[in-house]
Amino acid sequence: MTKRKAQPAATTPAILPPEHFKREDRLTAWFITIAMIALFIGGALGPLQKLEHVGINLYPALAKIGIGSVRIQSYYQGLTAHGVLNALVWTTFFIVGFFTYAIPRSLGRPLKQPRINLLALVLMIVGLVMAAIPILTNLASVLYTFYPPMKASVFFYLGLVLVVVGSWVAGLGYYVTYWQWRKDNPGQKTPFIALAAIITMVMWQIATLGIAIEILVLIIPWVLGWTEGTDPQLARTFFWFTGHPLVYFWLLPAYVSWYAMLPKQAGGKMFSEQLARLVFWLFLVLSIPVGLHHQFVDPGVPAGWKAIHAVITYSLFLPSMATAFTVVASLELGARARGGKGLLGWIRHLPWGNPSYTAQNLAMILFVFGGIGGLTNASYNLNLAIHNTAWVPGHFHLTVGSAATLTFFGIAYWLVPALTNKPLASRRAALAQAWTWFVGMLLMSNGLHILGLNFGVPRRTSLGSAPYLDPAWNPLQIEAAVGGIILGISGLLFFGNMLATALSRKRAEVREEMPVAEPLHPEYQTPAWLDNWRPWIVATILLILIAYGPVLVSMIANINLTSPGVQIR
Amino acid sequence: MHIDRYERLFIYAAVALLVVFMGALAVSSFAFGIRVPTAYEKVDPRTVATPPSPWGLPAEERLRELSPGNYEVYLLGQMWQFSPNTITVPAGSRVTFYVTSKDVQHGFKIAGTNINIMALPGEVGVLTATFDTPGTYNFYCHEYCGALHHTMYGQIVVEE
User: Which of these, B151, B142, B155, B154, lies nearest to B79 by C-alpha position?
Assistant: First the structure.
């Protein structure tokens, strides 16, 4: 044979026993523990924002709690911590932890160079501490978008860079492992979970070049006073080069679980394994050249380029729709295998008693609404109706706050028992957690969406203190606040359960393992082009050059370093 | 590559849906003229609020009637106010907004309208709207701009 052809493995090999993965498991435990601590602090600040909007201002009381200058003093400082800790720290640490667990198991071998991944952990922790200190001492209350020319402590930016660089190093650790696997298994197709996870990391590495350039070239020299000003429009453009693929960096790990783990938990198989591979390749190619759809109302970006990004964003709808079909079909296979019958009657036979399953299924349902809202946001001039209104946080709490976060909770319900070799402390509390998150999120996001769409209420604004606060907003503000409180309770149920599991003295009767769904049709041969990196990487870079090249070149040619900026306290 | 028949049909349906949506966007953009802002011109935020810059004029002189029923307004965002912060025009007026900022990023949205634009230092954003229905419309700063961001707002008064 002259041409390499990917062959299906004869049978899916059982995962190597856990004693082969001790180092990986320790690393994973570190990553997800830090992720959960971040979410605990960041999440706790969420309900306070919603209470402020309905006139219950707890920030003066919160400002009294603290050590020295480490304290949350204002709505916007709390909001910065909420955004950075939840959207950046919780997600990135959890995803790297999850992949450190899943990639080696999927490839059936430990990490080739675990020291690289240890270095990643150290870099990410140092970066986190470096960014957290200015946030908690009110020296970086610039929100998680840190739009220049608002100026924060330089350590805030350096810390963010280190977290990102740490995640790159983690990716490198996976690549060397994967590279060795390819050498040792010529002609074998890459196991799905490893392939999907590594595609996600590659996408992330290309995407984060935007934020790296923004911080290292446009922000740090200006914050240190080496340049007199910065260019806010160019900085925004680099930010959103990373900012939208960031959304897919949150989402694709959830897709990994929905495609390849959840069907196993439901007793089913992967309905369309080849299409799932194609979907991940499409996300690699299409996730990045779409950032201008966050900038439809920016003054300095030509409308034609905005329209091009709108069309590419629309094309992302297709892999998501394919995901919806394949995942639901895979779960239906499981439900029917468990005795489900009828057109829709099988739904009752899904494993609703399993909190790991239930959390993820509810996350998917919320994501349907998140997807519809996302399509609205991406719809060019329709965006004028909702840009920067309360609609937007309503939307992304359904995506990062539900599709990703609630799925990660579901993963944690098997992953933490697997890492600790202890049973989950309370199955019932975990089920209650999933359902309260679902209900709380429905209420909160419904309120926020309507406030934004019908009343133009601005997002991330201390509305309770705003002179324009309108009594007509009250019912929806209260709905959102009730949702926020239910989410807070749900969060407490999650952390309590995790803590009780970790501290328990019980041993699991059977050690939890990573669920791996088998393909429904292992006999179908995966075409070689679905296991070949080169064409997809080339397509990714080409599409970025087409969609961003001319517009960025012209913006850089007309760079305007005239904004001296304002230090924010 | 094997794709299930129903799944194939499902994806075709999704493509068809997108084509319909894109058509709707094209119609709203070209037939109804609902446009997004496009690159206009750059200004120096350090001098934009001083004459001879049009944003350096006194606030009450920044609304100009170009021809009957046709207005332009030079709106400046700064921490934490818009100037002018009250804009009064007769019903049926067509108003073009030239929006910029002299310090940090701000946002400008008129509730209940399609006027929504970022006010960035160094850039001029331009949007046009016609105000047919008399009434008072609030506009808000929708981009976080520091400690008193939530106090930054103004009003358009459309008179009978």
Answer: B151
Give the bridge partners for B87, in sequence order. Answer: B156
**Looking at CA atoms only, how far is residue A150 from chain B in angstroms?**
6
Regarding whether B55 and B133 lie in a shared domain, the answer is yes
> Do B124 and B141 reside in the same domain of the chain?
yes
Q: Give the count of domains, chain B.
A: 2
Please tell me which residue of chain A has the smallest CA distance to B45.
A563
Unique residue bearing structure tokens 């009064």: B88
Confidence class for position A243, pLDDT limits 50, 70, 90:
very high
Q: Which amino acid is at A383?
A: N
**Confidence category of residue A11, pLDDT binned at 50, 70, 90:** very low
Bridge partners (DSSP) of residue B129 are B95
Do B28 and B77 fall within a single domain?
no
Domain containing B151 equals 41-159
So what's the ipTM on this one?
Answer: 0.95
Closest Cβ–Cβ partner in B11, B34, B120 for A233: B120
Chain A residues close to B36, C-beta within 8 Å: 296-297, 303, 306, 380-381, 383-384
Tokens standing for A178?
A: 């994967």
Say yes or no: B54 and B88 in one domain: yes
- Residue A9 clears pLDDT 70, i.e. is over it: no
B14-25 average pLDDT score: 94
A261 to A74, A192, A216, B64: CA distances (angstroms): 42, 11, 39, 64
Residues B75 and B30 in one domain: no
Say yes or no for a CB contact (<8 Å) between B120 and A455.
Answer: no
Interface probe for B, chosen from A273, A382, A529 (most Cβ of B below 10 Å), is A382
Instruction: Report the percent of chain B where pLDDT is more than 90.
Output: 88
Positions of A annotated as catalytic residues are 244, 248, 395-397, 459-460
Claim to verify: residue B9 and residue B48 sit in the same structural domain: no
* Amino acid code (one letter) for A475: P
Within 8 A of A329 by CB-CB distance, chain B residues are 4, 7
- Whether the ω angle into residue B80 lies within 30 degrees of 0, i.e. cis, is yes
Structure tokens that stand for A364 in this block: 């998917």
Same domain flag for B13 and B67: no
Is A72's pLDDT higher than 80? yes
Q: What CATH number should be reported for the domain holding residue B54? A: 2.60.40.420
Task: Find chain B residues with C-beta within 8 A of A390's C-beta.
Answer: none
Predicted model pTM = 0.96
Same domain for B124 and B45, yes or no, is: yes
